[in-house]
Amino acid sequence: MRRRSPVPALRRVATATALSLVAGLSLAACGGDDDGGTTAAATSSGAATTATTAAKAAFPVEIAHALGTTTIPEEPKRVVVVGLSDQDALLALGVKPVGAMDWFGEDTYGKWPWEEAAWGGEPAALVSTKSYEINFEAVAAQRPDLILGLYSKLSRSDYDKLSKIAPTVAQAKGTAYTTPWRDMARVAAKAVGRTDQAEKLIKEIDDRMAAFRESHPKLQGQTALVVDAGNGPKSYYPFASKDPRGQLIAELGFKGSPAIDKLAGKDGFGTEVARERTDLLDVDRLFLLIDAAPQKRVEADKLFQRLDVVKSGNVTNLPYYKGTQLGAALAFSTLLSIPYALDELEKELPAG
């Protein structure tokens, strides 16, 4: 089963490409730039705007990241994202990437309910392989003038290959896949010259989170876990506080589980919990990432059903692929998916 966190199966990127191939791709990326860079649409049809004088004046910009500092000489027109969720911030800002990764698979690409309208029926070309690796040839084929890898773990080798195609911004310093959503949104906005717009959207989300906390006082301070139950009852996968899911519920007023954080370790996103240690999941509230098939197995798991949190009715099921797809919205936790997630959580959680 694929955990919907960037565990090894999801965060591997291709590293076996020969340097000669990369050099060829770099030349391909340069060819036709004068034409493709000026005629390709850079914004979604639902939020199309012309670049303002202020945005143009913002360039050149320099962005520091885990693998160095990247200079973006002018407002980019063709952006490829190789971070698993990087398209969301750009779409929220009205910028439509020309290439993106398919994180979840399962025929979900370009169809997430918070993204679909922004794509306008035409999602970006895929630049990932079926095993969630970067397809360098596909990246170069889009003739990008900027590559973003914010929600990623680019190696030095991968970064060097991408940088030969176009200026590349890698993940922030620190543990990969744990950069707060605000920070990633601000980097994406700086890279495309839309910092003022990003700050406005961030404030709107901050205000909504504050309103949520105010309207749900009884939830404040409760211990909570987001748990992938797809492998239940053989095992469960609770996410740690530093995972984006853990960060999001903390912003809504919940507290994480010290026991799970300890098991996850300093750089861990979560931890596998065997059926025999289901007691570790007995917090005040569980957010269960689950679809129909595993739900039947979990309902038959006597150890899970004995938990106080289950008996008290404080388990909220969040589907990945069906219905609201709220579980996936929490996994993305982006400038675009968070407002959608808040809408749906309001329907699921008791007020007062």
Automatic annotation (TrEMBL):
It holds the Pfam family Peripla_BP_2. The keyword Lipoprotein applies. Residues 78-352 form the Fe/B12 periplasmic-binding domain. Residues 1-28 form the signal peptide. InterPro entries: ABC_transptr_periplasmic_BD, Bact_iron-sidero_bind. Its main location: other. This is ABC transporter substrate-binding lipoprotein YhfQ. The keyword Thylakoid does not apply. It is found in: Cell envelope. It comes from Paraconexibacter sp. AEG42_29. SUPFAM superfamilies: Helical backbone' metal receptor.
